[in-house]
Specification:
Number of helices: 9
Distance between the termini: 18 Å
Helix content: 55-70%
Shape: globular
Largest sheet: 4 strands, mixed
């Protein structure tokens, strides 16, 4: 969807289970991902439905803890983590100034890109629209952690035109309308 090409990835078990067998299988998946390297897997998705009802904790505690872990392990140049959530809402620019890790760009950034790539749409969308549509791009049926290779993410950023990509996604979502987007999200959550 939205021009994203499927690559070889790992879909890990969710983080609800605390049983030793689940933990050891999860650890083995992550270890296998790192050992295989970018040539083996493009990303790993970890479903975390225990956090579906608590976006505030997800964004204010879980993602800063993941960021701190990557930094402490000196792995932030190797791995990137992106957050998705059923109730995802892009944090305010002040929060993002010190906690950019894993989050969608704030409306002021999206607006600058949109003004360059699609001035007509930029004029049609107010800040509330940009907040909603940008946030919607990070919504999934369950809370999800996407771990990917930093080099692949950086290469994709260099290869594609981020401004044009975000403008295209914003135009498509705006064309669908909030009501249709919310209904589609409800259907996805119900499975």
């Amino acid at each position: 969807c939205f021009g994203v090409v499927k690559e070889k990835g790992i879909c890990n078990e969710n983080l609800n289970g605390g049983e030793p067998g689940v933990r050891s299988r999860r650890r083995a998946s992550w270890d296998g991902f790192r050992r295989a390297g970018p040539g083996g897997y493009s990303s790993i998705l970890v479903a975390c439905p225990a956090f579906d009802g608590d976006f505030e904790r997800w964004t204010r505690e879980i993602f800063p803890a993941l960021e701190a872990t990557l930094l402490a392990a000196e792995a932030s140049r190797e791995l990137a983590i992106v957050c998705f959530h059923p109730d995802y809402a892009t944090p305010d620019p002040e929060w993002l100034a010190t906690h950019r890790f894993g989050h969608m760009y704030a409306p002021p950034t999206l607006r600058r890109w949109l003004e360059d790539a699609d001035a007509d749409l930029a004029g049609a969308l107010d800040d509330d629209d940009l907040q909603y549509l940008g946030s919607y791009m990070r919504r999934t049926p369950v809370a999800t952690i996407n771990v990917l290779w930093s080099a692949q993410l950086e290469a994709a950023e260099r290869k594609r035109e981020s401004k044009a990509l975000y403008a295209r996604n914003l135009r498509r979502l705006h064309g669908e309308g909030r009501g249709a987007l919310e209904e589609a999200a409800r259907r996805e959550r119900r499975g």
